[in-house]
TrEMBL record:
It comes from Turnera subulata. The keyword Coiled coil applies. Residues 204-231 form a coiled coil. InterPro entries: DUF632 (IPR006867). Residues 1-204 form the DUF632 domain. This is DUF632 domain-containing protein. It comes from the Eukaryota. The keyword Coiled coil applies. Keywords: Coiled coil.
Amino acid sequence: AEEILGAIYDREWERVKELDQKGAEPDKIFTREASVKRLVAKISLPMVAIDAISARIHKLRDEQLQYQVNELIEGFSKMWKLVIECHRKQLQGVEQAAHVASVKIRETSCFKATGKLREKILNWAACFEHYIQTQKAFVKLLNEWLQRCIYHEPEEDGEGNVPVSPSRIGAPALFIVCNDWCNAIADICEDGVHQAILGFASCLDELQQKRKEEQRQRRKTLGLLKEFEKQVRNASEMYTPGE
């Protein structure tokens, strides 16, 4: 609607200038000018509404969105600190458990526990990767959405356009924080952690397969031992003196 009104305004203003240049009667020029002034009023009203909406958006951005983003970042920071502390305590538990590794455990229970642990570890690896990727995607989308609200002249270097830097162009704090957050989280590589978790699951699988093989060999050995004892008894009975 504003573009249509703007086009009409330009056309009417050109007509006013043409009438003035051709020496038209004052009444005709006055009528055209009055028409142009009415168009200006119609255009001004939407502009006032746009300014009011823009001011409201800026207020929401600075008073609410920035506060929520700061809380979110603080929440993530606390969460990862708790995760680190949790893993530290788990490591202590594993080290302490190593001292009681000689306690006899039923083989069946051991196999089931190892299998369940491996399943949990694999699920943890999948959830970890999904969580990190989701967090990265969220921060990237938030930053891209905010940068669409920044008006700036594109900068170019020898290789093309330079990515917009909110701090360089003096953007509000929210834009700077989200851009720095996006760059920081993009530099984090979770592949090492993910592969380490999968490696642990693989070790559990190898351990379980090794124990299964040991159990099979034990059963085989016991079977051979029993067969050997049976043959010894039979031989003893056959060659007993006095018979």
